[in-house]
Write a structure and sequence with these properties.
Length: 289
């Protein structure tokens, strides 16, 4: 027969431990706690104050950036992933593992294939067909940013790898990013940099000089409006060269994050990032599998 207990279970266990009826040990400092935001700890303990709660020195949630605001879009309002038509199954698997590991929400955009739209947009252009498709894809993403009134959006290619701590890194970067920014490069497409600002981490912001690709970059709402205006009439240059020339001409307020937090995925297992998410995720799947 169960005997009613007039005290809470934790109070009863504490009393049993105090009188020595149970052998009990504690790990100090604790390695596991109930999570509670430091700015709202009041309901951790009924009637308790902040000092009742212990904060971990190296929180796993902090490490992965999972308790940061807008963590599933890295502090931007949206993430667009440009999906190429020849995407392999292994690449799809890697993308799935990235989203599972970092809890990201991605919006996949297929490369534009509309022949009529392409011919109407590039009547006087000498660009190759593949360049026209890429150009139109990026242009339509800028239009989507404006139409949806996103304050900012990240645009990436589908064969990507991300820094494992990208959420926490971007949290710090957003706090130091100048309010008038229009373009932000997160890859290694800008080789020449000049110092502009610093963050509290090892990652720094530099004024973009002349990027040579559009693998991973963010655009603000103001930047998207300006890109739609400047790129409305394509010339003989591919879109990455067009944007590079505009940046070099000081038409845009553009910054580059260094070292990069996003890089192309290398199927040979060579990782250019400090802490590759794909490398981490694959090792976890091997352990679990």
């Amino acid at each position: 027969m169960l005997i009613p207990i007039h005290k809470t279970l934790d109070a009863t266990l504490a009393e049993v431990n105090t009188i020595g009826n149970i052998n009990s040990y504690s790990l100090v400092p604790p390695a596991m706690i109930q999570w509670r935001s430091p700015i709202n700890p009041s309901n951790v303990y009924p009637g308790g104050d902040t000092w009742f709660y212990y904060y971990l020195n190296n929180s796993a949630l902090e490490f992965f950036g999972l308790i940061k605001e807008s963590n599933n879009t890295l502090g931007f309002n949206h993430i667009y992933v440009i999906r190429h038509p020849n995407q392999s199954q292994s690449l799809q698997k890697q993308l799935s593992r990235i989203t599972d590991t970092l809890y990201l929400v991605l919006d996949y955009v297929d490369i534009s294939q509309d022949g009529n739209e392409i011919s109407n947009k590039f009547k006087q252009s000498k660009l190759e067909e593949s360049q026209k498709k890429i150009y139109l894809t990026h242009y339509k993403i800028y239009k989507s940013i404006v139409d949806n009134r996103f304050g900012s959006a990240l645009i990436v290619e589908d064969n990507l790898d991300l820094e494992l701590r990208i959420s926490s890194i971007m949290y710090d970067i957003h706090r130091s990013l100048p309010v008038d920014w229009e373009i932000l490069f997160l890859d290694n497409c800008d080789n020449t940099k000049s110092k502009s600002g610093e963050t509290s981490s090892n990652y720094r912001l530099f004024t973009t000089v002349k990027p040579h690709c559009l693998f991973a970059y963010a655009v603000s709402y103001a930047g998207a409006i300006k890109l739609l205006e400047k790129l409305d009439k394509p010339t003989e240059f591919a879109i990455d060269l067009e944007i590079a020339n505009l940046i070099q001409s000081k038409e845009f307020v553009s910054y580059t994050l260094s070292p990069p937090v996003i890089a192309p995925w290398n199927p040979d297992g060579i990782h250019s990032l400090k802490n590759s998410t794909i490398k981490f995720a694959n090792s976890m799947y091997r352990v679990a599998g």
